[in-house]
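Whether sequence alone determines local backbone shape is best considered at the level of individual chains. The sequence in question and its structure tokens are set out directly beneath this paragraph.

***
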Amino acid sequence: MAPPLQPLRRFRETPGPSRRSLLAGVAALGALGAAGCSRVPTAAATGGGDLLSRLKAAGVVRLGIAGEIPFGYIDRNGDLTGEAPELAKVIFKRLGVDRVQPVPTEFGSLIPGLNSQQFDVVAAGMYVNPERCEQVIFSDPDYQMLDSFIVRKGNPLGLRSYQDVVEKKAKFATGTGYAEIAYAVEAGYKEGDILIVPDQVAGLNAVEAGRADVFAGTALTTREVVKKSGKAEVTEPFKPIVGGEPHVDGGAFAFRPTETNLRDAFNTELRKLKESGELLRILKPFGFTEDEMTDLTAKELCGG
């Protein structure tokens, strides 16, 4: 989903698709794209922008998505779904915008597409990091994400961190373009020794077949993929070490830098959903749990 051996969306932008595979429904995206959409004019450069009022008048908001399960995709019935679009439907309805319309693109094109007016908001579970914060403004995260390992049943090597992998000289695997590559290298694992596989399904297969002792991915994706396995299990979620400190990522919605009014209104409704517990109810069908709920802010993740 990103060029081989490049840290994923958590660290820096990479061309092409993101870490999470462009799974089922991608072919259907084209039919639901920007064709036929009426564009909302460019926001005012001052005063926080007036996009929200114009979206209310138009009755529709265009969401940039990247066709990634479970973050934002078109299902087998041709319907827009995923954690970000479903959350967007609720929040924009509360803001007076009744419809959401998907605009599919590759992950690496989301920020350029947003800033060139191809859509109004990025709704793709995008990780907030300082590099992206120089190009767009983010809502506060609607979820946080830790890492986890797929290991053989019983975790015979006792692998619970990247440091364990290095110390026990375990055969380490992760996905193409995954940030876990950088996490393992930072812990001291030689990059050339990492087994790179296409995705978490291939990672599970590698562990089950003994080609790897451990596969590293996000807690959500590893947890979901081992559910039907009789040979492998997932470890408890943990924080990777980045720059000598435990690190947690957070995913959020992105807006054009001029549209602070829309971002602030979105944050107000998001905060209400967090406080009421409704946010978890919305995200739960996509594999999210209480562990993925967060009070992180965009300011923290932007480094400010």
Notes: DSSP finds twelve helices and 15 strands in the chain. Residues 1-45 have pLDDT under 50 and may be disordered.
